[in-house]
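Same chain as my last thread, 114 residues:
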Amino acid sequence: MVRVKRGIISIKRRRKVLKQTKGFKWGRKSKERLAKEALLHAGKHAFHDRRKKKRNFRKLWQIKVGAGSRQQGLSYSRLIGGLKKAGIGLNRKVLSQLAEKKPEIFNKIVEKAK
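reply #2:
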């Protein structure tokens, strides 16, 4: 049977792992075993935080819309309820942008929701 030399492949694999952990602290950037484990944890956190990001943005939009509606003497929940009854189908992202950048347009929307 022919001898198979796999040195090049394993070195490439190690280099790839160490290249991905560039900038990590301590031995996690230079030692293969620690780097491999650090990458696993980093991937896990990255996956979860991509989903957390969506939650955080929705919270931020709700805070901005709530602040804008309070200036008009209306609570956040009453505003959202009023918008649904009035048939205005704007989402929270658009409402927060209006409340922040175009308050005069946001005020007209709030008046319709009242």
